Amino acid sequence: MEKKQKTILLVIFIAIVAFLGLWGVDLSQGYHMVSDISSDPEKYVGANVNTMGSVKQGTLDISTSGTRFVLEDLEEPGFEIGVEYTGSLPVSLSEGQSISISGKMISDELIEASNIVASCPSKYSE
């Protein structure tokens, strides 16, 4: 077999492996800013959303029935949305911390989160 034929077969093999590896992965839904969701909530109600922001100071309420807080936009703190979560919390979750959430938007002002990922605290300080 010639070198050119081997190269073509290798490229085809890599393409097939990449295609099978991405089979079933939802690539259509990226992260939305809280400001996007808050300014046009009707577009997202009933849909699964991924967003990121920071836990607003004074809003983190952890109880036996679940966790509630307000998520505010990282770039425009005037935009915010309520979040309810009943799963196990990241150990480092605190007010003012940047987080990303995935869940279903159940009303104009509330996301029912199914997953929360907290950013790692920086070991460097300014």
Strand and helix layout:
Layout: H1 3-21, E1 32-33, H2 34-39, E2 48-55, E3 61-63, E4 66-72, E5 80-85, E6 98-107, E7 110-118
Parallel strand pairs: 1-2, 5-7
Antiparallel strand pairs: 2-4, 2-6, 3-4, 4-5, 6-7
Model regions low in confidence, pLDDT < 50 over at least 5 residues: none
CATH superfamily: Nucleic acid-binding proteins
**Could you name the CATH class?**
Mainly Beta
Distance between the termini: 61 Å
Brief summary:
The protein contains two helices and seven strands. The protein has 126 residues and is an alpha+beta fold.
Overview of the structural elements:
With 126 residues, this protein is an alpha+beta fold. It has a single domain (30-118), classed as Beta Barrel (OB fold (Dihydrolipoamide Acetyltransferase, E2P)). The chain has two helices and seven strands. The chain has helices spanning 3-21, 34-39; strands spanning 32-33, 48-55, 61-63, 66-72, 80-85, 98-107, 110-118. A hairpin with a 2-residue loop joins β6 and β7. It is elongated, with a radius of gyration of 20 Å. The termini are far apart. The model has no long low-confidence stretch (mean pLDDT 86).
